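BUG: 3D viewer hangs when loading the predicted structure for this chain

Environment: internal workstation, default settings.
Expected: structure renders.
Actual: progress bar stalls at 90%.

Input used:
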Amino acid sequence: MNAKSYWIKLIAVFAVPAILVISFFVASGYVRDKPNFSQYPGFAEYFNANPPSSELPDQRDKELLLHYRPRFMLAEGNQLPVDFYRDYISNGVLKDGKGKILSRKVTRNLLNEYKDDPETVFEYVEGKSAGNAVVYGGVHRMTTSFQVDNDQLKQTLTFLSYHLVFKTSGPPTGIPRWQEVVLDLAGDLNDWHQLDHYTAVFLVLIGDGLNREKPIAVMLQQHNNVRTYIFGERVFLPVDDRVVIDVAIRSNELYPHNKGRTRHRAVNMPDAKSMYFLLSGRKKPLLAGFDVTNSSTEVDYDLSFLPPDDAFYTFKGFLGEKRLLPGRTGPQGAYYNTLPELKPLAIQLFSGYWREDHEGDIGRLKETIIDNGDYPGFAQLQKQEFLKTWMDMVNRNE
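Structure tokens produced before the viewer hung:
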């Protein structure tokens, strides 16, 4: 074999799987920006019906957020979270849809001027962090009804939201080495895309009829879906009411704290095949993998507040550089964290409530999402499972 033939074959050996893997990533959950995810059918209708407020949390809600603020744990060497405006937005340029620079000095006010333009692009340029990380707190309330015997049990739910901000994000650490090698051909795995601010905790509180609220569950953003954990089942609330959360290495996704190195099933988008893998651990999709946590250091952060209609949450353009591969392009505002049909917090709460290797949950998944693509139907069935578990926890504590 001559040298030319050798190199042609060598390139073919690596190029074919590289094209396949990169194509799968482009066609998977990383494509929220092709087209711009904020323009996905259903978002406009949702936000028209549920317009974000321009008001900050009142003093009572700020006290709730401060009291229940989570503890975030990082692995050694993991990047630190930052302040969105001070450390990220102030170190970049704002461009229009044709690439023309609008400003090299981007401020919160300027970003909010362009928040409704889906073509606007913010590009981060390397800069130093100037202080503690900032976690953004918010409060959302809604009423839901549970079917109890022949009656409807109405409950007001309070969602305390806490968003971290990371300058960059990458794929899960626990993917096969050959996939890492292939993806590394397309870009820096630690900087797969700029900005990660979907990383959020939602603490769920319920009223007790005496104008008091108590926590019953926590929802954690994990890639493009939310996972719900009821306190007392597999996650426990410490005596200081500050739930401890691990940040996954490289991907920044959030999981309940575990001591030592822990692997967590991870997928890009909650479609039928990936959800089946998440619940059962079986039939792993080609590009599913495992997030890895190995936390040792607690994050020192300040709690801050932004109005719900701020660009941090509602920006329709791109809050990170647009790159050649669509999946490497920066995200939209933090409210674009999942598909429009899953946006109502109650649907996220109940559709995210499932237990690994639980045959009942797997059966309901098959009946709804796998057989019919019925995500709200899965949420409705899991709502009753949520109620059963929650009532069990209440009875145990009496």
